Amino acid sequence: MQQLKDELEAEGVMPKAEDEILNTVLGVRSGYSKGLGHGVLPQSSKRVSSIQLEEEVQRRRDEDEFQRKRAEEAEKRNEELKAEMVSQRKKIEEMDARQERFEAWML
């Protein structure tokens, strides 16, 4: 089961849910389910909701990590822009001082 999961990940394919891999490895067993008759036994609702919750938690973790990275990049860009603004102000002040000296020299 782990080998199949590793092979899928190595191929870059989204790994199947554990139940799907289990069904692939062991096969599906038919049986009798009360109220449903003979056929494939459904997964328990607890198992399904547990899987759904795990997927939701993972999705939110991924989204949180993505947003954290975006915030870090924005903060870094903000610092770069602040430094550039300070540099531009210094250049403007230097140019103003040169212009004043030039005007004083011309008089």
TrEMBL record:
Residue stretches of biased makeup (Polar residues): 42-52
Residue stretches of biased makeup (Basic and acidic residues): 56-83
Location of region: Disordered: 33-88
Top-level division of the source organism's lineage: Eukaryota
Protein name listed in UniProt: Uncharacterized protein
Organism: Kingdonia uniflora
